[in-house]
Amino acid sequence: MRLESTVSHHFDSRDPEHIHRYLTEAYGTRGMRIDSDERRYRLSHRRLHAGPIRVDRVVQSTDLRVEVAEIESLVVCESTTSTVTRSCDGEESRYRPGDVFLNARPGRPYRVRWQPGEVVLCQLDRQLFDQIASPAPGRRPSPVRFTGLEPGSAVLADHWRATAHYVRLAVLSNPEASRQPLVLGAAARTLAAAALAVFPNTALTEPTGPDRRDAVAPVLRRAISFMEEHAHRDIGPADVAAAAAVSVRSLQLAFRRHLDSTPMAYLRQIRLERAHQDLRLGDPQHDTVNRIATRWGFLSHSRFTAHYRSVFGIPPSRTLHS
C-alpha cells in the first residue's frame, strides 16, 4: 500500500440530480435512492482522500431519506449536528449529535433518514483490515466481518472520535505530513485498528496454536531483515508477516517473546536510526529536523525530539547543526 499524498475536494450543490450522481460515485455504489419533501435542497461535501481512507464532512439542509443497495467499504459515521435514523438487517436505531455508528455492514443494504445538519463519515477500504489481521501464507484467509453496528461501549466511542479527529487534523489536513507516504500509511492502519477495537467483529486477536509454533527465532531474523531493507517504504504488519512467511499474530508473538517489543516499535527504531543518519549528513541551510522526521514517519515533533534524545543523548537539532 503506497499513499502518495492527501487529495482534498469540495462539492456543493442545490441540484438533486447532481447530488445523487455525486454521492453515488463518492461512495462506490450504483444502487442509491434519495427522497426529499423539498424539490431543491443544498448539500455540501468536503472530502480528504488518501488511498484507502476517505474522511468526509457532509452538511445538508432538509429531511432526506436515503436507500443504499450496498457499499463494499466500511463507513463509520459520527453525527455532529444531525439526527440520523438507520435501518439495516432488520435493526433500526436513532442517533443524535455526538453518536458514533456504522452505516451498515459492508456489502449489506441499508436505509437512513437524515435530518438537517452535519455528519462526519470515515470510509475505510476492506483491504485495510488485512493489514491488521492476516493468516500465514498458505492458510485459508478468513475475511473480517463486523457483527455489530455500534461501539462496544461509550469509552470505545470516545476512542474512535479521538483517533479520527487526530488523523483528520494532524495528518490529512497537515500539508507536510499529508505528503509523506510513511505517515499516511500509518494513519490508515491506525484508523483500521481503531475500527476493529471499537466495533464488534470476527477478527481474532489472540494467537492460535499454529501461531505460537511459528513464533521462533528464524521468523524474527527474516522479519528484521525485511524491515531493514524496506524501512523507507510504507510497510505494515501484514507486509512483514508475509515476508517472514507467518501470520500477523505469529509475527507479533515472536517479537514479544524474543525482544519484548512489537514489529512496529522495532520498525520505528530502525527509522529513528535512518533519521539520525540523515540529520548527520544534512545541510542546515536546506534541511530541517521536522522535515527529516516526517520523511521517516514521525509526525509529532515533540515526541520525535524526546525519543531521539533518549536514544542519542542530544536533541536532533544539535546533530543537524554539528
Feature tags:
five-stranded antiparallel β-sheet, alpha+beta, 2 domains, about 20% strand, 12 helices, Jelly Rolls, about 325 residues, six-stranded antiparallel β-sheet, single chain, Arc Repressor Mutant, subunit A
What would your notes on this structure say?
There is one protein chain. The chain is α+β, with helices and mostly antiparallel strands. It has two domains: 1-203, Jelly Rolls (Sandwich); 267-321, Arc Repressor Mutant, subunit A (Orthogonal Bundle), CATH 1.10.10. 42% of the residues lie in helices and 20% in strands. The protein contains twelve helices and eleven strands. It has helices at 16-26, 127-130, 154-172, 181-198, 209-214, 217-230, 237-244, 248-259, 263-281, 289-295, 301-312, 316-321, and strands spanning 7-13, 32-36, 43-50, 53-60, 64-68, 74-79, 84-88, 91-95, 100-102, 110-114, 117-124. Strands 1-3-4-11-6-9 form a six-stranded antiparallel beta sheet, sandwiched between helices. Strands 2-5-10-7-8 form a five-stranded antiparallel beta sheet, covered by helices on one side. α3 runs antiparallel to α4, α6 crosses α8 (248-259) and α7 (237-244) crosses α8. The longest helix is centred in the middle third of the chain and has 19 residues, at 154-172. It is globular and about 65 Å long. The two termini are 36 Å apart. The model has no long low-confidence stretch (mean pLDDT 91).
